[in-house]
């Protein structure tokens, strides 16, 4: 649909300075005081911590806006547009303060007002804009693009409630709305001038046009997408990009006729239907209505984003045929894959480009990042739903597919099996649109996110498409922003690194390699250990506050925090915990290495098996923690409501990082990078980026176990492999028997039988095959922990050798090899 309001021309920045006294502390102090009184209408004596946070954020936002406005009249040669359904940005104040170099200035300004900066930062809620690694990666990439001065706009949805707030009741996950926007978001700028109409349903009309037929979509329903911009500040504040989030609104907030007729609820039904689009991240698709809402969400933000960038390009450059020269659009997973037919529709229907010109523009502007090899995570949509909700797009998809298959026939590849494998429509189990195939076909480049993942993309899910265009798939291993995951999350370690190798390490993480030579320096090791001890004590306080469980900071902190999914194998960790519990009970006087097992992560509301794994972890924790025979040797904790801010507390305190997914299924992982950067040793499979981490930190400084990807495929081909593995492992059999017997659920003895029965009869993620090697590796880790000199040398080597995993490196590679954006 046409934009309600086109992108306004850039205006000259206001010629003023925020500096008044010349003393930055005084200026910020008075700015904060002014925001508190004039904007919020409260006095310092009556202000809540939330008020102080908002006032401080607004004072900082003024400075950020001034930096952004100073470049507002500069039209870059090329922009990157990053489309993602998730942006897990967490709290923004610490990022802004760190990147602007204002942390201590603001701390002093607030101190003069009698306020503690840490308390102000705690009052900021995590932005509920994502779920896990996909969203956190997008946030890291946005920060790195700003730090590298790559002009970029991120596009997503402004969720009212995000995923959900997790709590536990008797060990069961409970979901409640995340109310992060209840009191507004002081960082954002509402941009009602950037409002676009998004259509759904209706039909397509045809009319004669020149020497052809023009098709015009007539939607039955229209929803408004209203822009809200969040600034993204680069390192040292030299560039400010923006994250543009779309809020869904109805064209008519209330049907007055129905309201005045007494139908007060029905009068706002259309408004509620429209606003539901930006209400919740990942609504359950267990129902037909939920599935439709997900598709509405994906089309809503993709269409608004494309309309916005097309309008901007027309305003700045005019001819849409030059779009590939000045815009690179990155599709973060298949959620925005509808961009392929939508951009074609905008170019042909709305702006009159020929099909050939539009296809050239589309396939030279779009790029697609794949994040999964799991078939259930590669989106497909029922053709019936697409035809009903997006009829014009299905026409375009049919035409793209027809031309694609015709080309196969002409090149001698017209056999039925080949055409079925490369078709955009899967007809094997009902007719469904393959969004991964669509994104692949419409993109100039398709990238995986680790070396193994990319190789598997070429040989498995996209093997037939790869054979048609062997240059299209490239690898771009993920990275993390060190500004957030080292500087902000671990200031003690950052200070130590600066003292050891110089301040240049703040700008160039490659200088971290200089820490290698300190791995045997007793004085440096002692200080490194002291930093870890401090972070462990801080986490111990958080655990006690949120769970009531007291931890020993001298114990080995063994951490697995990530989205709960069977392939990530939290269950393997829990079973090993049960086996360890049994071993300690059998030999209580043995010299056991004290260990704390820390879990965190959310299960999708409709994912029954994952929620049962959480419950098992909780029940095992209750039994272990209440048993005096294992006191001081083993504790188990499941922290509720895992988030970015909680990760910032957990990761610097971890001694051991659990990265134990079934080999060949984790695309990359970025938590593994964050832990290793902060000196935690990894126990993991040869999966995702674990392989590249091993290559960089050295095989002696990581604990690898289990089958590799090829071994997984071979083992799955063996009939009855799970049963055979259990029979061969008395320890595994005993742990499963204890779980199945109801030892951890006496009030419901059969509660966990679905988990144990599945392992005995199917075990699709090969927990049984990897268990014994996992157990042996964990006992080797116990021994390594007792040799503290060797352990801390390994930890320091991990920190020193992780520089390559910076998202700055990732973004440079994307800019050079995918987007073709020049870096200054």
UniProtKB/TrEMBL annotation:
PROSITE patterns for this protein: PHOSPHORYLASE (PS00102)
- Which key words are in the record? Carbohydrate metabolism, Glycosyltransferase, Pyridoxal phosphate, Transferase
InterPro entries noted in UniProt: Glycg_phsphrylas (IPR011833), Glyco_trans_35 (IPR000811), Pyridoxal_P_attach_site (IPR035090)
Task: Give the enzyme's EC designation.
Answer: 2.4.1.1
The cofactor named in the record is:
pyridoxal 5'-phosphate
Q: Which NCBIfam families match?
A: P_ylase
* Name of this chain's protein: Alpha-1,4 glucan phosphorylase
Q: Which organism is it from?
A: Methylobacterium komagatae
What does the record give as the organism's lineage? Bacteria, Pseudomonadati, Pseudomonadota, Alphaproteobacteria, Hyphomicrobiales
